[in-house]
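step=encode ok
step=design start
structure_in=
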């Protein structure tokens, strides 16, 4: 039987059997390939992008009391080495002055990938998210949001990126509103109790 299959037709590819490089860059005489794997599970079929380039991770939590371990674990699942993860503690996503983010952006190079567990870890305002993403594209750096690669040339991908950024900004605005309301309520309670 030939390698092309029997005369009854082409057989279905086995799980993750179709692997082909979709993009290749070369730096310091080392090739970095992006592989596209077609994975079949019964009737369903999905496309998964496996990355063989260097990965730089970034994680952030808004308060010092929050645990960043889950974000680090998510980045490790994506293939980011633990010593390549940069973090910020006690800083909101609306604060553009973050030393961990600055370090991650400084370290990542052309042909490499900056990975974040979710977009709201990177930025919590639409202008900031767009600015960072556009700056990475100009530098030839890919942005991974979880297991998805942001593709600025894909209209649908760009739309979803903007939607995610809008929700991140909305969430940050809600937190600020609730904080102000809580402070206002506490102030009213203190005034009421002192009047007694």
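sequence_out=
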């Amino acid at each position: 039987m030939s390698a092309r299959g029997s005369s009854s037709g082409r057989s279905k590819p086995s799980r993750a059997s179709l692997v082909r490089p979709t993009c290749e860059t070369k730096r310091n005489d080392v090739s970095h390939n992006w592989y596209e794997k077609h994975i079949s599970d019964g009737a369903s079929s999905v496309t998964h992008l496996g990355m063989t380039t260097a990965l730089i991770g970034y994680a952030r939590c808004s308060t010092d009391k929050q645990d960043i371990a889950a974000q680090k674990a998510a980045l490790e699942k994506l293939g980011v080495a633990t010593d390549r993860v940069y973090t910020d503690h006690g800083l909101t996503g609306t604060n553009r002055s973050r030393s961990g983010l600055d370090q991650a952006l400084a370290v990542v190079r052309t042909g490499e990938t900056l990975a974040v567990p979710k977009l709201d870890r990177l930025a919590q305002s639409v202008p900031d998210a767009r600015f960072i993403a556009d700056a990475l594209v100009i530098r030839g750096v890919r942005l991974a949001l979880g297991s998805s690669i942001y593709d600025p040339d894909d209209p649908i991908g760009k739309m979803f990126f903007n939607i995610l950024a809008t929700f991140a900004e909305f969430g940050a605005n809600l937190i600020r509103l609730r904080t102000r309301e809580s402070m206002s309520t506490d102030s009213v309670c203190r005034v009421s109790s002192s009047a007694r």
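step=design ok
step=annotate ok -> The mean pLDDT is 74.
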